[in-house]
Batch of 2 targets.
Target 1
Amino acid sequence: MRILRLARVLAALLRVALMNAAAWRASFLVELLVGASSSVGVVLPLFFVYQHAEQVAGWALPEALMVTAFFLLLQGLVGLLIEPNLSAVVEGVRTGALDYTVLKPVDAMLVSSLQRVAPAKAWDVLAGMGLLAWSAAQLPAPGPGGVILAALLFLAGLLAVYAIWILVICTSFWFVRVDNLRFLLGAALDAGRWPVDVYKGWLRLLLTVVVPVALVTSFPVLALRGEADATMLIQAFGASALLLLAARRTWLAALRHYTSASS
Amino acid sequence: MIDVHELSKTYRVPVKEPGLAGSLRSLLRRQTRDVQAVAQVSFRIEQGERVGFLGPNGAGKTTTLKMLAGLLHPSSGRVEVLGLRPQDRPTELLRQITLVMGQKQQLLWDLPPTETFELNRAMFDLDRAEWRRTLDELIEMLSLQALLDKPVRNLSLGERMKCELCAALLHRPRVLFLDEPTIGLDVEMQAQVRRFIAQVNEAMGATVILTSHYMQDIAALTPRLLIIDQGRLRYDGPRDALAQRIAPERRISVRGSHPALVERGFREEQGRMVADVPTGGANRVLAEVLGLLPEAELGVEEIPLDEVMARYFRARP
């Protein structure tokens, strides 16, 4: 019953977010164009690199393309659903517009993290799905277990990224202007477009543990190659559960700190 | 209904020296100081009451209101609204209260107001038929019909406030917190908003707690006053009793300019001669004036509330 109600609220929010995005026709169209060209921009560098090498860090082109495909999916979903809300919440804390969200009888964390969408980013999702299908066709077909494992790893990674995003949003309750953190996080996510083995040492640790973007992009490919197992899955869900818990607690603490900009 | 006991709120605010050097220094080492916005305030409000919070800017009115609504966590003390702690934001409470702020808005800026109404229906989980009934009622009371399909950004300030009120009342709240709901509105729109609030109080039996800088709002709407100054509650009681205590005189005005009245204590004010006389002495003064100027056009009234308040705050320790 509660889930159903939540789904209705999310559907209503999505509806409004889409209408908001479409309210400015020219901007909507330009964003669609920019979105399409940026998807192409993600794929091109890979072809340049693989002109000079058969393999990079043990990854052949179709596999690397598959990592890119998961990266596009991630970038698309983050850009579509998560990122526009960061600026909305930061702005809400600064201007006090968050007051009205906090006063609604629904979960304020969910509402404030899903109140805006950027439909142009759907290109990345579409491009990611297309690229995933194409690169999968170049590689030996994985077993059904591998596919399920890959999907679950991707989901765990997405949840982890969502939690990290909430943590970033929370900092704005204390420091108010945190727009720059968005770029930092964007840069960290960007590193996920390359197979994780390209990175060595602390950088690799950073991308698998601190900002576990490799979880979303490289690990599902490992699963499809048959190189992942249930342990990896348990670790992935464990990590994202911990991150979600931390995000939730921080959010509740942040609300206690909310000073509701004066009117 | 609303029970507030020794409520306090302290803010920690950054302190910055003036100028660029000061900004750079505070970038390196941030200094803060504690500001007590509300100090040990206690009061009770019963169901259906209409109460006005009054006080100068920065007195702590809005902070108190926000603690009552659950937006701010008290630093100490206790608040209960409808038997629940607002800072816990229990769903049961959020469904029964509403907050309208004259300087902030919940309406979706680029969309027609109906979309906000629709979104609130989902957020408050309202039954569609019931929501429709309330909406129709509010549209009628606020004359919103012509505004419903215009994007909010194209509405005037007054039109927007009417739509804000509609959005805030769709769930038929039992408690209305209104923070300067008439700010910036023209005289006619202010009157409309006031009439509407009184109507809601009567028709829905809702408790109204209002802050405003416009004394007309207070005079028209709230028989009970809470005066907050420097974070402390200075007065809690009937508006009329306060007026009687601070300004017990009657104001006698005579239309036109009559220099002969000056030596009888009258002053000239906007084309009228005006004198404030003790209540008991008004008849004597009236008789005198009529004796002097048999044709004079006379008026007797109470001292306006904004003047009462100005006197109150001038006389404070």
Note: The mean pLDDT of chain A is 84.
Target 2
Amino acid sequence: MFNLIRRDVILQKRQLLIFIPFILFFIIMGAPPALIFLVASIFIPFNTYAYDEKVETNILLNSLPYTRMEIIASRYLGAIVYMILSIGVTSLALFAFNKPFTITDIAIGSGLFLLFAAFTFPLFHIFKPGYITTVVLISFILLTWIAPPIASFIAEHFTTITDFIVNLSIPALYTGATLVIIVGYVISWGITTVIYQRKAF
Amino acid sequence: MENVIELKNVTKKFKDFSVKNIDLQVQQGFVTGFIGANGAGKSTTIKMMMNLLKPDSGEIKLFGLDYKNHEKAIKERIGFVYDGNVFFEGMNLKDIKRIVAPAYKHWDDTLFYQYVEQFELPLNKAMKTFSKGMQMKASLAIALSHHAELIIMDEPTAGLDPIFRRELLALLQELMIEGNRTIFFSTHITTDLDRIADYISFMQSGELVFNQSIHDVAENYALVKGGLDLLDRDTEKAFVHVHRASTGFEALTDNIKAVQNTFGDSVVIERASLDDIMYYFKGGIHHV
């Protein structure tokens, strides 16, 4: 299983060279640190999916002594591993550029990443290969673009929801969010495993 | 004798095609050639053997183990070669090895580099720059480097030039010298099989027509040639399919004795090649 996670690095040697300039670009553009953490986390796991949506890759992986459950587990665990590594690298970069950031930025960035992963990973196995990477990338850009106005719209017009959230104590808010994310991630993992086990290559 | 692959009453249905009631045993220590026209169901059957496809019904066992409980143990012992390149196109062989090797407990690096040298494979060039023959050799080098007991190949000789085809067959022969290895491979180039196959499995329209030793195939099937006046409803029963021409008929029989009894010396009986068998079965499904 560890081999399956490590595989991503071997596979993406070249793309990793883009990784640093990619993050630097966001830093220099002055993007909010939380967004930078999010984008950095997405880089490796979603690049892997761009490879793995190919039928040939699945034939190869499934012909090797791995079970389908392991292949999916390596995606979900790998996403977390690479998220942590990316956050480390990004923190260093931010630090080097003297950009301040807080633990909250990391928490928001990684939380959003995990939610995004939980939402999109199953889609990779439902939609036809060839389209899904584009779909996910576009939806990601749209989401980051649309989400802030929607959030402020909700904040203004659905005051009961915002009141409820605002009235939560900070620890309760964090615990709640963490729980929602963990549960969402685990459910997504389960769904993807079931879908993948039924697939034919 | 032990069966390395065992399919019992395996059925898999697709929208417009199905593989029906396959009963197939592949014996340990032999080369089995898996023949049939394009679209006969060979690849589907091989995919089920590799657990890439799950059968709708029936039982599949490899080394006496089922995939449900022993998937890893089974695949650990199989070397696979597919028709197309399943390896990441943009990667070089060295990186592919770094991904594949750790998957196997018994991966043998020395052996791998030995094959790389023998096949003259470049380690640092992207797979997509390889010719079809080189891709095949690369797949083979990977398939052979973990001491697999069973080698499953789907159309390994398709698209290869005659020289490399021979080299490949010679190599497979060499592999068989080593004790209890089993090779199962599909092909529609039947001349390959005359050289190395011990057993022939023949599929036609999703059904397994026969699975016999190459010796039995030669004994059981024959081409019969004679004048058209010899044919009538009764005499035709001895044939799988009859091909008529103005000069006479040519037919495939699976019952040489009956033909000899019925026609005696009035017909010519010749050895049927695998191509002949495939050709006549294709035309004569109604009889089967």
Note: The first helix of chain B runs from residue 42 to 49.
